[in-house]
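Notes from hallway chat w/ T.B., transcribed later so I don't forget. T.B. wanted the structure written out for a chain they're using in a teaching module, and asked if we could keep both sequence and structure tokens in one place. Agreed to drop them here.
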Amino acid sequence: MVESDTPSEEPADGEESLQLPGVIAALGEMKPGAVITEEGVANLFNRCTASVKRAVQRGELPPPCRLFGSNAWTVGVLVGHIERRLQEAAAEAQRLAAKIRKLNP
């Protein structure tokens, strides 16, 4: 897998080369049905496989399925899980803001 902090391709004519820390563009460029192994996720996020396993245990990543003896996900499942977690975080922030407004009239 390609780490996205440093783009692997040369920019097209008229395109700027952006190097944004923490941006995992490669995940967004893959098709939703692409299968990515635990090792691939580790490389993609610049982590070791033990960190990926711990992220699954903490619920930061969805549980993988076994495929030919390795843990694997589809890109769509990973992105969907992240999107749901973002929606849940936004809803929680709204609930907290409403609670604060109610306590401080």
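Follow-up for T.B.: The chain has four helices and three strands. Might be a good example for the class.
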